Amino acid sequence: MNDRVSILVPVFNRESIIGETLNSALSQSYENIEVVVVDNASTDNTWKIIEGFANNDNRVRAFRNKSNIGPVRNWRRCVEEATGFYAKILWSDDLISHDFIEKCLPLMNSETAFVYSGVKIFTERPENGLPCYFIGNTGHKSSSEFLTRALLDNNVPVSPGCAIFRLEDLKKNLLVDVRTKVDSNFSMHAIGNDLLLFLLTAKNYPKFGFVAEPLSFFRAHADSISISSEDGKLPIHYMLVRAYFAEHYQKDMVSQMAARAWLLIIKYPAHRSFGIERVSDFFYYNVKLNYYLVILILFNRLLRIPARIFRKMYRMLEAKK
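User: That's the sequence. What structure does it adopt?
Assistant: Structure tokens below.
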């Protein structure tokens, strides 16, 4: 397989780390790549750094928006400028291993929606990051498994920064806005569009691929979209997207989504600031809350508490080594 892979790097004000990100893209052992970088009208030295890379390496195709068009429209600009058959989004604060494409691409075939690798989430040194999203051995798995896991928030990524897709699927399934009952500007807060890309793509293929190695490295920092918020903005908007998908494409999961939405409303009193008053606000049509499911979910979460405590202690011990 020697199809071109477009590595897409949307960026805004990342002068201190964009060089490291671009170096990780350009270091790929797979040779047939282009690196499409779109600067969203940065106000720091990000564009100068990008120009330097583009002047020194003809694999870098650099573009700059005249004004800031918002994060998701900038993602779309990357997609529109790409020329590859496959595409891999690389967020401007993240890194990939030199053999990411080499190890992921062989799993892509006509029945495969996408391929993603295991992840390490790091603050300083990528190799010391926290392993995430490992679900068994390298190989193909059922897309129905991914959809169930993603809707139940069960150890699969929401960020496509660890995955490779067909470019045509990115063009079709990376939505700028998500039409929900709540008037929320998904194009600007960019919470949920990423997960929906996975969901909409997975539903059209029987399988997805997984590489059981940490080939993707997500940087945890205060400016990252993926860092959790205490007011519940992240989980509430991801639940809006999960409810949207279940209601339109997987109706057997609507009751599960409703039960989890109710728990989010209880957990986050600030839900009203996002236009959420009740469970029905997550759905276009009336849903009936199943309190038996609510109790079952709470019970399962209680059972997982000892495992969470153990993992936290393990990470603390590892950090002291």
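DSSP finds eleven helices and ten strands in the chain.
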